[in-house]
Design brief:
The chain is α/β, with parallel strands linked by helices. The model has no long low-confidence stretch (mean pLDDT 92). Helix content is 34%, strand content 24%.
């Protein structure tokens, strides 16, 4: 059974939910995918043809309103988003999936509650646990479904998160290589990134945080 069974490409008979999207990083194609179980709309930005034989450069990016839209310096999400689009543009083809999984899947309301606990000294992992929530609640089945719909099976994945790689492989995506994405390091997010490296297993070297 296809993993796309829970996925709708949002379109009607006359107007597909797909269009050109010129950006400061290049002229992308935007496509909207609807997830039936959550009601969320997720986005794929593609540049060039998605056919192989080379692996496609892919970034699976979880929504971060504070970092992506408000340029928060508490995290590295905004710089990662922009750096991924720039890397895809420089290569000339690739795909960015933008998933509605705010706050590592706990939602915006709980994420800001976690921020408050972090203001009081908790790290990013313990703050979630103190709220009775998982440290990371994301499931990348939807990402695998989107890649399948785009006919992308072999990828070079822009990520520091080994769990993302493991999940995509479990869902049938051939992750040929991991491409590091350590960007946007600063005084206000260094502890956050150290926690991700030390306690959540992210592939971030100490010298990359200096």
């Amino acid at each position: 059974m296809s993993i796309k069974e829970n996925l709708d490409l949002v379109e009607d008979s006359s107007i597909p939910s797909e269009a050109k999207l010129p950006t400061s990083f290049g002229d992308f194609q935007i496509r909207v995918f609807h997830e039936k179980s959550t009601g969320f709309d997720h986005v794929a930005l593609t540049l060039g043809e998605m056919a192989g034989p080379d692996p496609i450069l892919v970034r699976v990016h979880s929504e971060c309103l504070t970092g992506d839209a408000f340029t928060s310096l508490r995290c590295d999400c905004g710089p990662q988003l922009h750096s991924a689009l720039e890397a895809i543009s420089e290569r000339g083809w690739g795909c960015l999936l933008y998933l509605r999984q705010e706050g590592r899947g706990i939602g915006l309301h709980a994420k800001i509650q976690a921020y408050r606990l972090q203001d009081q000294g908790a790290d990013t992992l313990d703050a979630n646990l103190m709220l009775g929530l998982p440290a990371d609640n994301r499931d990348y089945k939807i990402a695998a479904s989107m890649l399948e719909s785009l006919k992308i099976s072999k990828v070079s994945l822009l990520t520091n998160n080994p769990n993302k790689i493991e999940q995509l492989k479990e869902y049938g995506i051939d992750v040929v290589e991991r491409v590091s994405l350590v960007v946007g390091v600063g005084e206000t997010n260094r502890f956050y990134l150290e926690t991700k490296a030390d306690r959540m297993g992210h592939s971030i070297e100490k010298d990359e945080l200096e």
